[in-house]
Specification:
The chain is an alpha/beta fold. It has one domain: Spore Coat Polysaccharide Biosynthesis Protein SpsA, Chain A (Alpha-Beta Complex). It contains ten helices and eight strands. Strands 7-5-6-4-1-2-3-8 form an eight-stranded mixed β-sheet, with helices on both faces. Helix 9 packs antiparallel against helix 10. It starts with 5 loop residues before the first strand and ends in a 5-residue tail after the last strand. 32% of the residues are buried.
């Protein structure tokens, strides 16, 4: 096997505080892997500016002028983390042999890249970075994150437990993944669907080196909803099953009401009637909400809008 060319894909959104710290770390890791003969010397660090409102793109442009190993692309507007990662992967798939996607904040252990590349050289086409622990998370974030992965698995989605978007993917896999045209992206659940030989590498996650997290609770919930509705129809089947159960209980209730009426044992009671009406109405609204979520996904998919638009590339600038 020839020495593979690696592209490190780094999505960036308002990262002017942390980028000057982590960019040299990524470059040193790239050059270290090249010195060890694991990757080609013409490998690259590819930054993907996700429509940042600060000086992130200016910093990326300056880095590209300082060292040829730094390159960058900029989206025409902010489209979200998943779309930014996808843009980087699709930009790199024809230019390299392998990619490693990693966040810009320095929390993911870059030394795990050594094991990832070694696994690729041993024949694996996909290598997932899996967190060995969540000691740096708050109790709430740790509980919700672990519950999220377990709930996804229960809903029938194929995901790697405690894996986010730190992974190695070969260009061979990316060529096949390019055939996946979904607009609603949940990469950590879509990549396993491609197949090919895969493995996992464990690593410890550190504190963010600088700046603030761009993944608040609202975005985490939105990502969870996207993951469930994009990868599984089990919620719809649960609705059907629950609807059958309620129908059976209701039918039994009707029989009970008729029998008690014929026996003359009926009594006027607004409380029981109100409870039944409220319960059934609540169930109906919840079911309609879940169905509506799926209809919304279908609506977005049928539009077939581009998932990303690249407005600038550092190597095309004057």
């Amino acid at each position: 096997m020839t020495t593979p060319r690696l592209f490190i894909i780094i999505p960036c959104y308002n990262e002017q505080d942390v980028l000057p710290i982590t960019a040299p770390m990524f470059l040193e890791k790239l050059k270290g892997l090249a010195r060890d003969g694991k990757i080609s010397a013409d490998s690259r660090v590819l930054f993907v500016n996700d429509g940042s409102k600060d000086k992130t793109w200016e910093i990326i442009s300056d880095l590209a002028k300082q060292d040829e190993h730094y390159i960058g692309i900029s989206q025409s507007r902010n489209r979200g983390h998943q779309n930014a990662v996808l843009a980087g992967l699709m930009e790199a798939k024809d230019k390299c042999d392998i990619t490693i996607s990693i966040d810009c904040d320095g929390q993911d252990d870059i030394n795990a890249m050594d094991a990832m590349v070694e696994a690729y050289l041993d024949g694996c086409q996909v290598v997932y970075g899996v967190r060995s622990s969540r000691e740096t998370d708050t109790f709430f974030k740790r509980a919700t994150a672990q519950g999220f992965y377990k709930f996804l698995a229960m809903m029938g989605a194929e995901v790697v437990y405690n894996h986010a978007d730190y992974r190695l993917i070969s260009s061979r896999v990316l060529q096949e993944f390019a055939n996946f045209k979904e607009v609603n992206l949940f990469l950590r659940g879509m990549i396993p669907l491609v197949g090919f030989k895969s493995t996992s590498v464990s690593y410890s996650r550190a504190e963010r080196l600088a700046g603030e997290s761009h993944y608040p609770l609202k975005k985490m919930i939105a990502l969870a909803v996207d993951g469930i509705t994009s990868l599984s129809v089990k919620p719809l089947r649960l609705i059907t099953g629950f609807g059958v159960f309620v129908a059976i209980v209701s039918f039994i209730g009707v029989l009970w009401a008729i029998i008690t009426a014929l026996l003359g044992k009926t009594v006027a009671g607004w409380a029981s009637t109100t409870c039944i009406v409220c319960f059934v109405s609540g169930v109906q609204l919840i079911c309609l909400g879940i169905i509506g979520e799926y209809i919304g996904k279908i609506y977005m998919e049928t539009k077939q809008r581009p998932r990303y638009i690249i407005s600038q590339r550092t190597w095309e600038q004057d």
